[in-house]
Amino acid sequence: MIRLVARDLALAVRAGGGFGLGLAFFLVVTVLVPFGVGPDTARLGAIAPGLLWIAALLACLLSLDRIFALDREDGALDLLATAPLPMEGIALAKAAAHWLTTGLPLSLAAAPLGVLLNLAWPGHLWLAASLLAGTPALSLIGTFGAALTVGLRRGGLLISLLVLPLYIPTLVFGADVARRGAEGLDPTTPLALLAAVTLGCLAGLPFAAAAALRVSLR
Amino acid sequence: MTLRARDLTVGRGGLPVLARLSFTVEAGRALILRGANGTGKTTLLRTLAGLQAPMAGEIAPGRDAVAYAGHADGMKAQLTVAENLAFWAGLHGLRGIDAALDAFALRPLEDRLAQHLSAGQRRRLGLARMLVTGRPVWCLDEPTVSLDAANTARFAAMVEGHLAEGGIAILATHIDLGLAGDTLDMGPWRATALDAGAPA
């Protein structure tokens, strides 16, 4: 499984697109918002937690259709399915690679980018913590959506419709962690719920994604 | 090892393509699948490889013994020849890729990205992957497409070596490779309307 993660990381770095695209999108959205909302720092600070979480969520969405589609196109998915690696392991490895190339960079970049939106200290740290806890769930849900649509043409559009509703609990709790952190309130309760969502996704979605992949290979 | 298929019915899209097919392939033997386009050669190979379940019947041994090479080679354009082979070797719990590099004269290309290979070179790389699977049963779907005469001979030698070690090869090919084995004409096993559940 580690070999598959390492291969996907190497491909993401060499092929481009996957690795920097989400981060660039996140940066562009964060920079553009003050132009649209206006220079009122109090207003920017108030909307920053939710806005940064929505930007991160959409940035994750950008590369979901590539999780399995490229392997299906070049025949690697068939070969992976016949390799001595359970389909659940393949789904988990793909989700891990997606998180390492998308969720982790976003989590690390979020704190500095929070400054652009006047996110109050220590909201930056809680924002980064919430993204670190929540973006794995985004990758796992996205992997499930990608597995469901891997056999479909133009499945990328369908993935968005499938996974965005499933992202809502993660978004609600993640943004609440950052908001509470910025307002000086205790964010541990939404953070625990966010972690619970991620763990729930980790426990169930690799199996669901594996089942969807088996159906698509028939 | 012996590969056995008994009363096998395989299909595409829920419709049977081949029905009540039975065959046995002993260790060291090849089975060449012959038939016109659409007779179900690829469907049978995918079923033997465990990529799809049979609609009826039994196959032994299971998918863990089978390595599959389909129309698409599964090699990553952004990885080198050696990296591609090393990835698949590692996934199958093996380390060495030297035999695979030598079997298809890929050593001069080992540091070249797969995206810079010709179609024939990519095909050689895809077939060399079979040697790093360590699996006793090879299912090969039109393996000689894009190969010139010299590399077709290399491929035949690779399969002969596999058979000599007690392996089994099931091939869908229109070329006579001179392998020790039998030919299975798929025509008589094509599913009829009755097999598809149509009223008599």
Write up this protein.
- The complex is a heterodimer of chains A (218) and B (200).
- Chain A is mainly alpha-helical and 218 residues long.
- Chain A has one domain (2-217).
- In chain A, 85% of the residues lie in helices and 0% in strands.
- By secondary structure, chain B is of the alpha/beta class.
- The interface between A and B is medium-sized, with 23 and 29 residues.
Got a strand count of chain B?
Answer: 8
- The share of residues in helices of chain B is 25-40%
Q: What's the number of domains of chain A? A: 1
Q: Which parts of chain B are unreliable, with pLDDT below 50 for 5 consecutive residues or more? A: none
Largest interface: A-B, 23 and 29 residues
Q: Structural class, judged by helices and strands of chain B?
A: alpha/beta
Number of domains of chain B: 1
Shape category of chain B: globular
What is the end-to-end distance of chain B? 41 Å
- The CATH architecture of chain B is 3-Layer(aba) Sandwich
Given helix and strand content, the structural type of chain A is mainly alpha
Low-confidence stretches of chain A: none
Biggest sheet overview of chain B: 5 strands, parallel
Major sheet characteristics of chain A: none
Number of helices, where a helix is a run of at least 4 consecutive DSSP H or I residues of chain A: 10
Mean pLDDT of chain A: 89
The total count of strands of chain A amounts to 0
